[in-house]
Amino acid sequence: MSYAVLHIIKANSSLNSIAKHIERTAHPENADLARTHLNRYNLVEYPDGITGLAAAVEHRISNAGITRKISDRQVRCLNLVMTSDNEGMQKIIDSGKLDEWIADNIKWARDTFGGDNVVGAALHMDERTPHLHIAVVPIVTAERKKKAREATAKKRYRTKAANRPRLCADDIMERGKMSRYQDIYAEAMAKYGLERGIRGSEARHIGQHEYYRDCMVKKKGLEEDIGNLSIEKRKLDKEKKSLESKVESLECRTTALDTRKKMLTQVNEEIRQQNNELYSENTRLTEANSSLAAENKSLADTNAGLSEESVRLAEQRKGLAEDTDRLTAEKKAYEAQTDEARKEARNAIRERDEAKAERDAQRKELGSNIANIFTGSKTKRLEAEIVRKDNEISEMKDRAEARERDLHREISNLSDSLRRQKEHEADTVRSYEWKIGNFVKFFPDAVAMLPAIEECQDVGLNDNSIKGLLSMNEYVLKSGTTLYYPFQRREVDASGAKVQIKRDPTDNKFHLHVNGTRIFQWLKDQWQRLTQTIKRGFGIR
């Protein structure tokens, strides 16, 4: 459990120090300025026309009816500091009882020392432990204890009233009363989970001046340590600079040798593979196509940025195309079957007509031949055969017509399905075009930035470097950094070069610049300069 802490401190006669501290007109070194706004002042209102704690104390003294002369050395104010440890105060704050705790402390001070004697109060939240200051004017009415010499002396003056008010801090701060204050204060704070401190404890409160004095002693020691460390740091800095200079010199020499070796190897290989005429022609053609290649790559990156939507549309289109091909094939198959059925129907009709003609001919022949009277059974069989054929032809015709109606119905359904799919595809395309239009409308710089991103990737910059360059800031490449020249498929040294992404007024798009020059032009210039240097080294013009 936490303790209820009560300190009673005598203020000096000028009141300036305690007033500055309580009202925070001067900030102590141990106060956190970032938390000063949490402090609360004027928790006890001053009388009308009174501003400031010092004036409130003097107003109380002058209006208390004191007749005895007050000396300059008398204590005019007592500073009551009320708090607990950090844990105890934090529990009060977290439980939302801080305002109640403040009110109970002010009430306890008024009940204990007199309501009129409590002239000011402030809550400090900007120091290590939150605490409450209450200013009490030590005016008492109890009879003054006479000294031994006064008791034995003969009376020379008339007797004064026993309970007249007087200013006396010693009466309030008697040892017995101080212990009693701790008892009754702990009883008032018990409801907040605070208990009385240990009786007879040797622990004592460190005063503000003593605390500041200890801080100054520690500060002076720290300043001496800092001075000694600064001297050591300067020595180490000198040694470090010397070593860094040596390392930088060695790195420069190593880089120069590596660069020269690399240049010689590249040029020798290039000379063996190409002659001057083919090299020149290749360079010219590469330069002519570079702008087209860059533009194509930019468009490819733009499409790649929207690849997910394009792939989805492509899949839908592919599915629609497959459905269209399938429906077309089925339609053709149905049409072929319809034609076949029609042919069969025509053949059946033709066979029926031929059979009818043959039957009519036979009938005529039977009519003219009396002998056929005896062959009546054969005629009936022929007629029955003809009737059967007619029935088969009629059935085939009905099946063909039903098949044709089914085919027309299915073709109509397929046409409706194809029309709906085409409408859905058109809606999807319009949605896609609307999204692309909004993207270009509201993010024009994002589209204009694509050529610069492509160029950064072409010359071998990593993703983190590209993200840094997109902030439009200028960066200096480290020693030993190389950039890839795609037209020659070679690395070009770019140590110390300044790189930045800037808008080019010629096409109003962003491009990568090195030392103020477009990247590919700079790489071309570097490559030509390197080639000329190597050729001069070999005596080639």
Automatic annotation (TrEMBL):
A biological process term (GO) from this entry: DNA recombination
Pfam families: Mob_Pre
Keyword Iron: no
Organism in which the protein naturally occurs: Muribaculum gordoncarteri
GO MF term list: DNA binding
Annotated segments matching region Disordered: 315-363
Record keyword Coiled coil present: yes
UniProt keyword terms in alphabetical order: Coiled coil, Plasmid
Coiled-coil ranges (or none): 219-288
Alphabetical list of InterPro entries matching this protein: Mob_Pre
Protein's recorded name: Mobilization protein
